[in-house]
Amino acid sequence: MVYSQPHVYATIFTLSVLKACALDSYIAAVYEHSVILSEDTKIPVSPEDALMLMNKNMDVLEGAIKAAALQGACIIVTPEDGIYGWVFTRETIYPYLEDIPDPQVNWIPCTDPDRFAPAPVQERLSCMARRNAIYVVANIGDKKPCNSSDPKCPSDGHYQYNTDVVFDSEGKLVARYHKYNLFVTETQFDYPKEPEFVTFNTSFGKFGIFTCADILFHDPAVVLVSKLQVDTVLFPTAWMNTLPLLSASQFHSAWAMGMGVNFLSANIRNSSLDMTGSGIYAPNGPRAFHYNTETENGHLLAAELSSHPRLSPTYPIAVNWSSYAASIKRFSPDDHDFSGVIYFDQFTFTELAKPEGNRTVCQKDLCCHLSYRMAEKREDEVYVLGAFDGLHVVEGEYYLQICTLLKCKSTDLKTCGQPVATAHTSFDTFSLSGTFGTSYIFPEVLLTGVLLAPGEFQVLSDGRLINQNGTSKPVLSVTLFGRWYEKDPPHPQQAFP
């Protein structure tokens, strides 16, 4: 379900709707927020002016939280940077920060605001949760003093962290997470000394939390799901869409499926930075998602999820991702292969020149196999099969293995890999597989208009991503997106001790 941006309510009242938050399923909500920004983040402001801006954004978030609670939601996630914005310097972000205590202190800021004062943002978020009887997830900034006895202490005498907080339905602080994998532009924040694996239990499942770029790395994301066995991941993000393979809804839905976990993703809406794409995703597909390029409005999503998805009869089967691909011979020779770039990575491509057929393309140890049949081969559209096996080195370093069927931007093969959002070619069938060296594979199918394809494909136990009945709309891309974590370089915090 998609709900338009709620009105801001002038008065706050205790939620009287009885929510079922202790059953086998629950309603989750995420809010895509169009952030009210500072006029100039390079100029320092007073704490009073900083709080004024944050209150403007919290006015909007409070309306969304109230609307979600009235829909019966037990928890709501709001975006990264959703309270004060982005592109600050270390100095100019400081007035927006609060000292956020360890949740073990057992603190309800709404009823005891002076205990760790000044903390007006935490107090207000706590009251939103308490008065609406809903868990509230928000992203704010934490500051921690340090001194010369700490060799890593910054010269200004304090650490600054990009931080997620969670308040339970009574307003108690139950989780605090410091972002471990900072984006290249987040110079206003410090890296935590170690990755934090933050979880908390509720009557409707076990939750874990991380932020934005964390999803691309092993710690803490994979540990939370594979080792700590959380049921649901909370994911505040400020995600800039990067077609053809890394638009927000596309990748986040695929990650939920590949990892077998519920995933609540709340993104920013900002057209100048191409930020949009929020969703509520389950291991077997999206429950609700939103992708908006037409307006600057915020949007509320709410949907029902299984509290313990691993116990569900619809939980995905175990997959050996290379089983099928390793058992067959190459479909086609490499005499027509060519190179192209997707987001700075040099792919090897081969054209789908016929309306149906079998194609193979290889790069290093990865061979990608595709069997397909188009509904119609159009002269004005070109599709390719691509492979990438290597280290991505721009805006972060991480090792990828990717097999992808995708539409080129034009009939010129030099445009293959460039962003494209519309298509007119439908496929009656496709089967994509690869000789992956990793077990962490995220399956994506993206349709024209940058839309997901829930229920229109399946992953077989031998690693094939298939569709046998056609898709509801023309295809932009079909992808098996692999992450080989063992080949990653050290995290910056470990690389430069």
Description:
Belongs to the carbon-nitrogen hydrolase superfamily. BTD/VNN family. Pfam families: CN_hydrolase, Vanin_C. Residues 31-307 form the CN hydrolase domain. GO terms for molecular function: pantetheine hydrolase activity. Helix 1 runs parallel beside helix 3 (120-132). The chain has seven helices and 25 strands. Strand 5 (158-167) and strand 6 form a beta hairpin. The chain is of the alpha+beta class. A seven-stranded mixed β-sheet has the order 1-13-2-3-4-5-6. Strands 14-15-18-19-25-21-22 form a seven-stranded antiparallel β-sheet. Strands 7-8-9-10-11-12 form a six-stranded mixed β-sheet, covered by helices on one side.
Map the helices and strands.
Elements: E1 2-4, E2 25-32, H1 47-70, E3 75-77, H2 90-93, H3 120-132, E4 135-145, E5 158-167, E6 173-178, E7 199-202, E8 205-209, H4 221-227, E9 232-236, H5 248-259, E10 262-266, E11 278-282, E12 285-290, E13 299-306, H6 323-326, E14 338-342, E15 345-351, E16 356-363, E17 366-374, E18 383-392, E19 398-407, E20 427-434, E21 441-447, E22 451-452, E23 458-459, E24 465-467, E25 475-483, H7 492-495
Parallel strand pairs: 2-3, 3-4, 8-9, 9-10
Antiparallel strand pairs: 1-13, 2-13, 4-5, 5-6, 7-8, 10-11, 11-12, 14-15, 15-18, 16-17, 17-20, 18-19, 19-25, 20-24, 21-22, 21-25, 23-24
Active site: 80, 179, 212
Keywords: Glycoprotein, Hydrolase, Signal
Family: Belongs to the carbon-nitrogen hydrolase superfamily. BTD/VNN family.
